[in-house]
Structures are given as structure tokens and as C-alpha cells.
């Protein structure tokens, strides 16, 4: 939704990649006889690595455009290692998933980081293969050399051997649980691959000390390794507890909150709880968004250790999150300031789920419904992103824009999508407790494995992640306030149609599309705010538009929502289907004439413009409150501006009334009569609606209708809240109009 779909621009590239894939498929089952000898592969890999390193600095300064391909999906291995048979490189067949087997390997090169992390690895027969590990942590989070490096021993489960884009042969691992790191003396590693000099057996105490030293150097992944080794030899309960407590810190630092929490002993801290355990448990719970539990643990901590000032500060923070979560009580001014400053704009706030719940619809799967009557402007959701990928728009240069091509769905997306797949995959793998809120989202007919864990690791199906993203991802601006201001200052004439930044909001994902929607989403950083745009009776389904309706028929209606597998059947779409092509072409012609009239050196001739507007209005047959007149409101607003600038308040107000009607509103009293101004029914909420209401405010004021003027300002503020998410910035944004 609102993401940069570049399928059309990159159709040729997609077709080329598809061709390569088809060619590769023809080799399925072949055992290649032309594999390069080990030395040659090694030399080539190392030269490549060197040249990559030397150009790295240069690349960092350039705006790089990476492209990555989602290959045809395959399921992760769900068999435990014990049930798999060992295989060797020379038996690998091309384009084949070697189900029922595992391949033990020893890494012989340092890693190269491209979209995947790549190394060369050898088996016990001294054959070498290129190994590509996808969806690994990014370099900022964990250095590639910490993930895979010379001498490490791995077991690749059900290896997928294929022809790479470069033409080389290699193993591609897309699922995190399909590769297992084991120690060089693991019995599943053949003798010849084992290290000649195995590391000396250390005591739990010395391994713990090594872990502590690694923590001191901020080498948290290393610390986890040392502590975990210490736990395999520790046998004194107190010592085990200390090691786990120390490891929980390293887990916290590496965002493995489930593991951190489990190491603190939560929820049973015993009769003599340890300060650090309580504090770390509270932190882990906080990052898992379990604010109530976090607050309980902190209260216990405060009771037991009243001098702990840090706990008090954290408790304050947790209490603010609880207020946000329970009552939707946000300091929106603060949120805006944070979104302006933080990069990436990922805010530390809780999710509020208002009077809505997920229910089944008749024809659209699940949907979100209001549980009680709400008013236009009411807050339905203020949701923190489950995952968010920031890619700057416009002036704020950014090197993170990726082209993601899916060869199965034949779709190309531009933006932070590739990063988002990795972020989500990692999040689910590291914190399985949060997985259900994501994995239960709509994913069409994709069927994934039902086994949740194997060999002590969670199974995360990368292709399920990709599929869920394709149906549920939202493009988003840095803040809707900034886009609103851009539109206001005419930097952008219309609302932006797509964004490079994107994210997943698991509650908002249940909202179905409708062009004539009754809610709107807005963003402040990675918080999505959904507000009602109409008064809604209890049990009404909440809808917003996935793509803003344009009112023309430049695209086949069947095509517009193709990627989501549905055809919109709202009144506007039905009307567009029934309307003859000649009518659309007539509308286009009138709009062109209006554009020419605007460009006239003598300014707009209002009489002529009124006639054109009337002609345009006549091309519509359905009542405007059922089928809004999308090509009409914009030029009508232009005319309102002209009358207002001339001080012709009566005509200005009349134009405002027509703008509102074209947008589908039903209104009373938008004239000089004594009837009070009232919106009987709200229509489409577009950015220029605020301006429209403010013109009404000015006109009423000038005509001596102070009450109506106030009402109009109230509506302007309400529309602003729907568009921007909050109204604390209303006065400053519209200072000029409100003077
Ligand atoms: C983001 S999900 C919305 C929640 C979804 N209905 C569910 O059951 O989880 C998007 C999917 O919902 C369905 N959908 C959304 N709007 C629809 C509409 N107007 N008509 C039919 N199906 C719709 C489509 O299957 C679409 O791919």
C-alpha cells in the first residue's frame, strides 16, 4: 500500500532474470562436471574480496542501488538433524533441494557481504563450494566475520544447490534454521574437517570470565558464545544462575529479548530476587511491549531495592507506555519532535488499540470493526510498527534504496523492502514469542511448514515473511505532517502516491480496502495513526484506501488491486465500470481546457471557469455522496481561492460548498442563510480539505456568522487530525490562515 511498485519500469530486467531461471531449471538434477578446482576458486574469491574492500569506502559515499531477487519459494527443513543423512559436495545435483540430507562443511575464506553473506567452504573430500547465507543480521548489528569465518564448522540442512546469477555453482540458504553452527569436535563433523588442535577444555569459571571480558569490549555475540559454553560445563546452581544473569545482558544488547527474559528466571525470581535479574527482566519485557508485566517487575524491584534510582526512571517510562497503551494518551508534540530528529525515525512508544476488534467479513476474509459508535476524527489505532525500514525521500540522501524483484509474483518493488524481510526474519527468529502476531496475517494461498521448532531453533520461513509483506506492507512518509506541509506549500500538488520507507503494522493490517473509505491512516515516524473519517455506528467495518482513488480509468479496474488479489466493488469503482470510455475522455478534455484557462496571462475568467465546472459536473450521473466527483473538487477549490482572494465571500462560500459536495459530503448552511453550518455526512478526506474548511471560516467570519466560522474552524481542525494524526501542530501549520 503506497509502496513504489516499479514492475513496469523493470519489466525487462525481471524478464531477463526469469529467462536465466528457466535456463537454470533445465539443468535440474545434473551433477556438474565443470566445477572449478579448489585453488582456482579460492584465488578468485580472495581477489574479489580484496577488490570489494578497496572500493568499499567509495561505495559508502555513493548512492548505491542494490537489486535483489526473491527466488521461487521452498520450505525450510523441518527434520531434526538426527533424521538426516550425510551428503558430500560432489553428489550435489543442480537446482535441487536435497531433502533428507545434511552437508557438513568447514569455512575456508573470510566472508564477503553482498545481499547475502558469502564464503567458500569445503567438505571432507576437499571439494569446495560457494555458500550464500541470506537474511543474516546486517553489518551494523553483527559483523559478517562474526557470523561465518575461516575455520568455522557448519551443517547445512537439506542443501539447495544451484546456478548462481554469476553462472557459478553454489549453495543458497534462505532460511535461518537451515544452517547450524557446530563446534569443530561435534561428532557430526567428519574427522578430516575437525580442527587439528581442538581448543583446550576450560572450566565454567574461566569461560564465564571470557564472557565478562567480551561484554567489557561490547562483543556481545562473543559473550553469548562464551557464556553458553560455560553453561555446558557448569554444575553448581549458583554459578549457573550468575552465568545466565550475565548472558541475559548480552541477549538484551543483541535484541534477543525472549532469551534474555528466560535467563533472568522470570516469572519466578525466588524468595531472594537479585537486583540485576529484576532489572534485566523488566527491560526485556519492555522491549517485548509487555509494559504491564515490566511495570510489575519494576515495582517489585523498587520494593526490594528502594535506592535503585535507575529503576525509578525506567518505571516512569513504563508508566507512560501503559497510559498510551490503555487510553491512547500520547504526547503528540513529543512524537512529532522525535520523528523530526531520530534517524531511523523509530519511536519509543506503545501501541493503542481503540474501540476496534478483528472479525470475519462476508467476502473479504477478516476485517477490523468498531465495537461502539465513534465520531469522525476519533482515534481508532495508534500503532507502533512491528518492523520498519527507513529510506529517506528527497533531499535527505540515502543509500538504502533497494530494488526487490520477486520472480514468482513478477513484481518489482523499490524501497526498504529487502531490509524489511531481513529485519522481520531476524525478529521472528530471535523472539519467537512475538511471531504469531505477524505469521497470522493474511498470506493468500501460501502454505508454510507447521513445525514451529527444530533442533532447538525456531523455524522461520523466509518466503512466508516475503508473502505476508507483499499483502500487508505499508509505504510511509517520515511524518504525514511533512507531506501535508509539502502539499500545502504546493511543493507537491497532489498527495504523494508512494514512499520508499515501509513497515508492517499488525493491527492495521486487518483493515480492508474501500475507495469510499471511512478511516484514514497517517504517520509520525514509525507510528501509524488510524482515525475515523466519518461518524460510525457500532459494528461498522473500518476501511481505508490502499491506493488513493483517482477517479479516472487510466488503469483497468481489474489491475489496480491485482497484487492483493481482489477487485474493489465500492460505489465509485462500480460507477467507473459502468461509465463509458467516451465520458472519461470528455472529462479529460474539460480538465485540459481548465488547465489552459488557469495558464491564461489574464488570470482565470470566472464565468468561463464556472461553465467548464458545470459541464464537468454534468458528466457524473450518480449522487455525489455515493460517487464522489474526483475530477471536480480540485478545480472547484481553485475557483474558491479566486473568489476569496477577491473578497467575494458569497461566491467563495458557494464554491466551498461545491468542493465539499464533490468530495461526497452532505452539508447544511454553507451559505449566507440563517441555517447553521453542519456536516451531516463526511465525504472523502483529502489534504486540501483543511484549506476548504478554513475558507469557509473566513467567509462566515466576513459575513458576520461568528458561530458558523467557529464551527468551520472546528471541522478544519478535525480534518487536520485525520490527515496528520494529531492537532497539536494545527495552529503553527495554519498560522497564516488563522490570523
Ligand atoms: C491487508 S489484508 C486485509 C485483511 C485480510 N482481509 C485478512 O483476512 O487478514 C489484504 C487482503 O484483504 C483482502 N481485501 C482487502 N480489501 C478487500 C476488498 N475491498 N475486497 C475484497 N478483498 C479485500 C484481500 O485478500 C487482500 O489481499
From TrEMBL:
Name listed for the protein in its UniProt record: SET domain-containing protein
Source organism superkingdom: Eukaryota
What residue stretches are annotated with the SET domain? 354-547
InterPro entries, A to Z? Gramillin-biosynth_MTr (IPR053209), SET_dom (IPR001214), SET_dom_sf (IPR046341), TPR-like_helical_dom_sf (IPR011990)
Which PROSITE patterns would you find in this protein's record? SET (PS50280)
Amino acid at each position: 500500500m503506497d509502496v513504489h511498485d516499479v514492475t513496469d519500469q523493470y519489466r525487462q530486467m525481471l524478464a531477463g532474470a526469469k529467462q536465466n531461471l528457466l535456463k537454470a531449471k533445465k539443468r535440474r538434477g545434473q551433477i556438474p562436471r565443470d566445477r572449478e578446482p579448489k585453488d582456482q576458486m579460492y584465488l578468485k574469491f580472495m581477489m574479489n574480496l580484496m577488490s570489494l574492500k578497496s572500493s568499499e569506502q567509495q561505495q559508502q559515499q555513493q548512492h548505491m542501488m542494490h537489486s535483489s531477487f526473491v527466488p521461487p519459494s521452498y520450505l525450510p527443513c523441518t527434520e531434526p538433524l538426527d533424521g538426516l543423512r550425510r551428503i558430500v559436495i560432489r553428489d550435489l545435483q543442480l537446482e535441487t533441494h536435497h531433502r533428507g540430507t545434511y552437508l557438513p562443511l568447514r569455512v575456508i575464506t573470510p566472508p564477503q557481504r553482498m545481499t547475502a553473506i558469502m564464503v567458500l567452504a569445503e567438505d571432507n573430500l576437499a571439494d569446495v563450494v560457494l555458500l550464500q547465507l541470506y537474511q543474516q543480521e546486517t553489518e551494523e548489528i553483527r559483523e559478517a566475520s562474526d557470523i561465518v569465518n575461516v575455520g568455522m564448522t557448519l551443517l547445512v540442512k537439506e542443501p539447495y544447490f544451484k546456478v548462481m546469477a554469476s553462472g557459478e555453482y553454489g549453495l543458497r540458504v534462505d532460511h535461518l534454521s537451515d544452517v547450524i553452527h557446530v563446534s569443530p569436535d561435534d561428532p557430526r563433523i567428519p574427522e578430516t574437517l575437525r580442527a587439528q588442535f581442538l581448543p583446550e577444555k576450560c572450566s565454567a569459571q574461566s569461560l564465564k570470565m571470557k564472557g565478562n571480558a567480551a561484554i567489557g569490549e561490547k562483543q556481545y555475540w562473543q559473550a553469548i558464545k562464551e557464556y553458553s559454553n560455560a553453561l555446558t560445563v557448569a554444575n553448581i546452581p549458583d554459578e549457573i544462575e550468575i552465568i545466565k544473569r550475565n548472558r541475559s545482558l548480552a541477549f538484551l544488547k543483541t535484541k534477543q529479548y525472549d532469551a534474555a527474559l528466560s535467563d533472568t528466571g522470570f516469572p519466578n525470581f525466588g524468595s531472594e530476587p537479585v537486583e540485576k535479574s529484576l532489572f534485566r527482566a523488566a527491560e526485556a519485557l519492555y522491549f517485548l511491549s509487555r509494559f504491564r508485566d515490566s511495570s510489575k517487575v519494576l515495582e517489585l524491584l523498587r520494593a526490594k531495592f528502594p535506592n535503585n534510582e535507575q529503576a525509578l526512571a525506567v518505571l516512569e517510562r513504563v508508566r507512560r507506555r501503559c497510559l498510551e497503551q490503555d487510553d491512547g494518551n500520547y504526547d503528540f508534540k513529543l512524537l512529532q519532535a522525535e520523528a523530526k530528529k531520530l534517524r531511523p525515525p523509530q519511536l519509543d512508544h506503545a501501541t493503542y488499540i481503540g474501540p476496534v476488534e478483528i472479525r470475519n467479513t462476508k467476502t473479504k476474509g477478516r476485517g477490523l470493526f468498531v465495537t461502539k459508535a465513534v465520531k469522525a476524527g476519533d482515534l481508532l489505532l495508534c500503532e507502533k510498527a512491528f518492523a520498519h525500514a527507513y529510506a529517506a525521500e528527497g533531499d535527505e540522501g540515502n543509500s538504502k534504496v533497494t530494488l526487490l524483484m520477486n520472480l514468482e509474483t513478477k513484481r518489482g518493488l523499490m524501497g526498504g523492502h529487502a531490509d524489511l524481510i531481513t529485519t522481520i526474519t531476524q525478529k521472528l527468529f530471535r523472539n519467537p514469542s512475538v511471531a504469531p502476531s505477524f505469521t497470522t496475517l493474511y498470506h493468500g494461498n501460501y502454505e508454510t511448514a507447521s513445525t514451529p521448532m527444530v533442533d532447538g531453533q525456531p523455524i522461520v520461513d523466509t518466503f512466508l515473511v516475503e508473502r505476508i509483506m507483499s499483502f500487508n506492507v505499508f509505504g510511509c512518509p517520515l511524518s504525514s505532517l511533512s507531506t501535508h506541509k509539502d502539499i500545502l506549500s504546493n511543493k507537491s500538488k497532489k498527495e504523494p502516491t508512494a514512499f520508499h520507507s515501509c513497515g508492517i503494522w499488525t493491527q492495521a493490517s486487518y483493515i480492508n480496502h474501500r475507495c469510499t473509505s471511512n478511516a484514514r491512516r497517517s504517520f509520525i515516524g514509525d507510528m501509524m495513526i488510524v482515525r475515523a473519517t466519518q461518524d460510525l455506528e457500532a459494528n461498522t467495518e473500518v476501511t481505508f484506501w490502499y491506493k488513493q482513488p483517482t477517479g479516472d480509468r487510466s488503469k483497468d479496474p481489474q489491475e489496480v488491486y491485482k497484487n492483493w488479489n481482489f477487485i474493489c466493488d465500492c460505489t465509485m469503482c462500480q460507477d467507473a465500470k459502468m461509465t463509458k470510455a467516451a465520458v472519461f475522455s470528455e472529462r479529460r478534455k474539460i480538465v485540459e481546457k481548465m488547465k489552459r484557462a488557469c495558464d491564461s496571462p489574464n488570470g482565470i475568467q470566472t464565468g468561463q471557469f464556472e461553465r467548464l465546472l458545470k459541464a464537468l459536473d454534468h458528466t457524473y450521473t450518480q449522487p455525489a455522496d455515493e460517487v464522489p466527483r474526483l475530477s471536480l473538487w480540485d478545480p472547484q477549490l481553485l475557483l474558491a481561492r479566486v473568489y476569496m482572494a477577491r473578497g467575494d465571500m458569497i461566491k467563495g462560500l458557494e464554491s466551498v460548498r461545491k468542493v465539499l459536495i464533490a468530495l461526497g459530503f452532505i452539508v447544511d448552511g454553507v451559505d449566507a442563510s440563517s441555517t447553521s453550518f453542519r456536516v451531516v455526512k463526511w465525504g472523502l478526506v483529502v489534504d486540501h480539505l483543511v484549506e476548504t474548511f478554513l475558507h469557509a471560516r473566513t467567509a462566515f467570519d466576513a459575513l458576520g456568522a461568528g458561530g458558523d466560522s467557529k464551527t468551520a474552524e472546528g471541522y478544519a481542525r478535525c480534518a487536520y487530525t485525520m490527515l496528520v494524526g494529531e492537532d497539536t501542530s494545527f495552529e503553527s501549520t495554519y498560522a497564516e490562515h488563522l490570523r
